[in-house]
């Protein structure tokens, strides 16, 4: 199942090491680390999130 981990590098609740470990534990998962993002989904990054999700949804050739 295609999986994507999007993790903020400034997350005060869940260290980036946990996001990396999660991505490693899911075969074929894509990890996107976002500089300056904390433990939230800021509206100014919605396009970035949508782009990552759209890329994941595209058929792989």
Main pleated-sheet profile = 2 strands, parallel
- Multimerization state: single chain
Strand order of the largest sheet: 1-2
- What is the overall silhouette? flat
The span between the termini is: 16 Å
Mean pLDDT: 93
Question: How would you summarize this macromolecular structure in one to three sentences?
Answer:
The chain has 61 residues and is of the alpha+beta class. It has helices at residues 16-25, 46-57; strands at 4-8, 30-34. It has one domain (4-57).
Give structural notes.
This protein is of the alpha+beta class. It has one domain. The protein is built from 2 helices and 2 strands; from the N terminus they run βαβα. The protein has helices at residues 16-25, 46-57, and strands at residues 4-8, 30-34. It has a two-stranded parallel sheet with strand order 1-2. The model has no long low-confidence stretch (mean pLDDT 93).
What is the element layout, followed by pairings?
Blueprint: E1 4-8, H1 16-25, E2 30-34, H2 46-57
Parallel strand pairs: 1-2
Features:
61 residues, alpha+beta, two-stranded parallel ribbon
